[in-house]
Design brief:
The protein has 15 helices and 22 strands. The chain has about 475 residues and is an alpha/beta fold. A hairpin with a 5-residue loop joins strand 5 and strand 6. The longest helix has 21 residues. The radius of gyration is 23 Å and the shape is globular. It starts with a strand and ends with a strand. The protein binds nicotinamide-adenine-dinucleotide (NAD).
């Protein structure tokens, strides 16, 4: 049985109720988390405020950095344990779960070094004045985290907020929070003061909503769906609370006829099957120049049909989806594709060892998907790739920009001029040329346009969002 983690203590929910923890690989409950309430959020915010105004503000930037470095090392020491927790909670194949634990350690490492490099400026002004700016923390920041990459998103969001001098109240997803409860405990063991990192578990519409509305929260970082992002922003707007939104995507991979297909195609496959397609930056649309369209589909059909799907510990190409309703969501999209006469080119295989009670979906390649069909417009959040062809650069730009999203774009061409023209014209927060994701570097600012959200996390850039700029003008004559 798991508990909230508030003020460095394991605490039960005031509701007295729990929620089951389900293993997506077999659909069976194996643990329970607390079903939090608004009163629990209030308790966590009070603990955070007391910490902020007590011990935390007295730490200087270098001391904060040392704490984060200790936490990075602690996470690295416990990486295998954390990976196994995440594997079972989220259904992640072993390689992915290990990569997520390593990324968490790396986020804390990066932000530990950033703490004492964040500073304001002096501004030349009128004679007799000196003007300077300070970057001050917001105070108590709220973090609403989804289930697809709990450790990675905790690292980037909470790591950045702590580095900038804030303390945090975190609401992880009800579908995956065990690794984060363990990380909070490790942080306490590293010497983080009581109240610096608080975790309240439970349903979004109960505790997530209470967090977004709480008057003691000074900034909210939300990562999740556009629908809930809108709710968070509305709730925060009531009290003018600043918000960072990291939402979904329908990101295109654009293949021109001069692309190096040997390099591109494995990345096209990986970008849609990684984490069973449950990745905000999944390359879920494939735009291919007409002259190579058939050749590309033929090669991808072969690659897709060889993909194997099964229980997370088997460490195959693809694990299960997170829950039954997510599986149903993917099935609904595929049923719509069939009704619309969209042709399926290839599918992977679910292995015999996969229990019927698990939430499996074979990776699926669809061709000639009309740009206005929901498969080309909406986030499936499953391993489904929608392919379509384009004539020329203008047409590729038009298709790439023809969804409400703008998170990531992959451009594959050897033509240097075209690389830069395309990068300028496509609306997306991250553009990758002749690669996709660049290994996910924590240094690289990340965030969206339009329905993909606003604000940036990751990299040094995130620290500006986790601070408020104050201008001080001194008239000294
Ligand atoms: P979700 O929006 O359903 O849930 C995200 C979080 O919000 C969860 O913790 C949930 O409990 C909480 N929540 C739900 N309803 C709430 C409410 N009314 N008020 C406050 N909080 C509430 O998203 P999900 O299904 O957990 O995750 C998938 C989505 O997240 C996808 O759209 C994906 O693209 C997006 N995502 C984006 C990024 C990014 O960095 N851009 C990263 C990962 C996931």
């Amino acid at each position: 049985m798991q508990h909230h983690f508030i003020a460095n203590q394991h605490q039960p929910a005031s509701s007295g109720h729990t929620l089951p923890v389900i293993d997506p690989s077999d659909g069976q409950a194996y643990d329970a988390i607390q079903r939090g309430t608004p009163a629990d959020i209030d308790r966590a915010v009070q603990a955070a405020r007391a910490c902020y105004e007590g011990t935390w503000q007295k730490l200087n930037a270098a001391e904060r950095g040392r704490l984060l470095m200790r936490l990075s090392q602690k996470v690295a020491e416990h990486a295998e344990e954390l990976a196994l927790i995440e594997q079972r909670d989220c259904g992640k194949p072993t390689k992915q779960a290990r990569a997520d634990a390593a990324a968490l350690a790396r986020y804390f490492e990066f932000y530990s070094g950033a703490c004492d490099k964040l500073h304001g400026e002096t501004i030349p002004y009128l004679d007799g004045y000196s003007v300077l700016t300070w970057r001050e923390p917001h105070g108590v920041t709220g973090h609403v985290i989804p289930w697809n990459y709990p450790m990675q998103i905790f690292g980037r969001s909470v790591g950045g907020a702590l580095a900038a001098g804030n303390v945090c109240v975190i609401k992880p997803s009800e579908d995956a929070c065990l690794s984060l409860l363990r990380v909070a405990q490790l942080a306490a063991e590293c010497g983080f003061p009581a109240g610096a990192i608080n975790i309240v578990t439970g349903y979004g519409h109960e505790v997530g909503d209470a967090l977004a509305r709480h008057p003691g929260i000074d900034h909210i970082s939300f990562t999740g769906s556009p629908r809930v992002g809108t709710l968070i922003e509305q709730a925060a707007a009531e009290r003018h609370c600043p918000v960072t939104l990291e939402l979904g995507g329908k990101s295109p991979q654009i293949l021109f006829e001069d692309a190096d297909l040997d390099a591109a195609l494995p990345m096209v496959v990986n970008a849609i099957v990684q984490n069973a397609g449950q990745t905000c930056s999944a390359g879920s649309r494939l735009l291919v120049q007409e002259s190579i369209y058939e050749q590309v589909l033929e090669r991808l059909a072969d690659a897709f049909s060889r993909l194997r799907v099964g229980p997370a510990p088997l460490d195959l190409d693809v694990g299960p989806l997170i829950r039954a309703s997510q599986q149903q969501r993917v099935w609904d999209f595929l049923a719509d594709a069939q009704v619309a006469g969209i042709q399926m080119v290839a599918q992977g295989q679910i292995v015999d060892e996969a229990p019927d009670t698990g939430f499996y979906q074979a990776p699926t390649l669809l061709r000639d998907v009309p740009i206005d069909h929901r498969l080309a417009q909406e986030e499936v959040f499953g391993p489904v790739l929608a392919a379509m062809s384009f004539r020329d650069e203008d047409h590729a730009v038009q298709l790439a920009n023809a969804t409400p999203f703008g998170l990531v774009t992959g451009i594959w061409t050897r033509d240097g001029g075209r690389q830069l023209r395309m990068a300028r014209r496509v609306r997306a927060g991250q553009i990758f040329i002749n690669n996709y994701g660049a290994g996910g570097g924590v240094e690289l600012p990340f965030g969206g346009y339009r329905a993909s959200g606003h604000g940036r996390e990751k990299g040094f850039e995130a620290l500006y969002g986790f601070t408020v700029l104050k201008t001080v003008a001194i008239r000294h004559g």
